[in-house]
Specification:
heterodimer, A: 2 helices, B: 460 residues, 65% helix
Chain lengths: 124, 460
Amino acid sequence: MNPPQKGDAMSEYMYLFRGGEIPVAQRSAENMQAHLQKWRDWIQALSQQGTFITGQPLQTGGQVVAGSAKVITDGPFAEGKEIVGGYLIVRAADLAEAVEMSKGCPIFEHGGSVEVRAIQPFPL
Amino acid sequence: MTDTDTVNQLVDHFFRHESGKLVSLLTRVFGLHHLDLVEDVVQSAMLQALETWKLQGVPRDPAGWMYRVARNKALDLVRRRHVADRLASEFVRYQAGSLDRQHAFDHLFLDREMQDSQLRMMFACCHPDLPAESQIALTLKILCGLSTLEIARALLTTEANIKKRIARAKRKFAAQEVRFEVPTGGALKRRLASVYAVLYLLFNEGYNSSHPSELIRRDLCEEAIRLCTLLLDHPMGTNPQTPALLALMLFHAARFDARFDTDGGILLLEEQDRSRWNTERIARAAFYLGASAAGETASRYHLEAGIAAHHALAPSFADTDWAAILRLYDWLIRMHPSPVYDLNRAIVVAQIAGPDAGIAAIEAATRLEALKHYHLLDATLGELHLRAGRPERARAHFRAAMKGTLSQAEQRLLARKLTDCDTVPATRTKEGHHAHGRGHAAGVSAGSHHHTTPARAGAQ
């Protein structure tokens, strides 16, 4: 089945996820599964509204290439809370709506954050 | 993978059950003395599943996915020499004969080996050298995947206490005093007895209506049933006591939904709507009870299952075969004297010969001294005095019972009984809910009627 799609007036927005891991003391199997289910429910709700486009998690680690000398350094390159752990792309009428939609994200339960950015549209 | 149209839901307790399976499997590789390390590997695999699946969706074979992640993490560990040197010798021998380590791991993931691993873990957790209180905590932690906090809530104690119990057991594992194997011969029989005792206690912890949380109680019962089924499915569990214990659990669990009204109030056995009993479970229980009728001797699980069967199969409370139940209790008490059985027997006596006969049976049972502070003893005495038309004495017993329970549901039931005490002279002659005589309630303990916690009672 195809989820209902919103019209052409919509723009695409990217959610960048940082932090929000379950604290060590609360990592029981049951808590982890319950938290996972909240994410699935949230994304399912976005899909049903026709606003969800895609999402991917990012592995920790990686390398940074910088400067004209192309110096390679190993990650992690920032504090744990500042590392982007994944992203999601949604469709929304404007930034305010995209921000509003992000408020249902379970990442806030454990102190995480969502950075909402408009994706620059391809000029016709 | 991001097909969000799929339901994307895992079965209930998937993580918990997979964690029990994976810890058991990896313990085959690393040995019981590395249990902490194994638990870390499994937890980190679950965390990776959470982090990946929350955005990508749940893969088609989530158990296989999680297994591969755990295996790769374990292989990483094995590659570090200092761990490899201390792998379980059995696994090292095994792996030497197979193509490579990964192959050896994957072999353990086969259903049959997986089941075998879990059974070994069950036998290790219920090892008779471990203190009884460690056995049950360890079973819940390792095989059922509960956290120490969750176990503490389930067993109504502190988390520090549970940690202590588990640490005590792990010290024995670390010292390699417990072998990770299914014992054979006479040792198997003794070990099975110990496993039965733990599963029985686990079920009773859940079925006991004193616990404040309905949800936790149900979980404990379901886990006990699951582990008992696992035992039944394995050739090593081929012992008539296994189906008897499973039948006993299923007969009781069939009544779970009917034991409470819509407000969470306790409904006594005679108040329960029998159409709400789970007939599928009763049928399964009856099947296993039939299957258990092999061998020379009847165990206490056989007799308790027999009693539960009489209740579950009776068309109504009034048409229950109390005389047959009494005979089973007499047999049970000869085999396994326990004050809790004495109390339940007295309730049956009252059913057959009236409340005063029940009170006399309680007074005659000297073992019941041990239950002096057991709230169900007071609740039963209260009920019997109430039925005998002595509301004053009944009231005193109900009040004493109220002091002995934390459960709100039990408090409310006892409060309801106290109100009955006020109205007893007025309603005595009328036919109705509070009328007494033949076919009346089996006391407050009917919520967990005929269901006993001998270990707990024996400890008093």
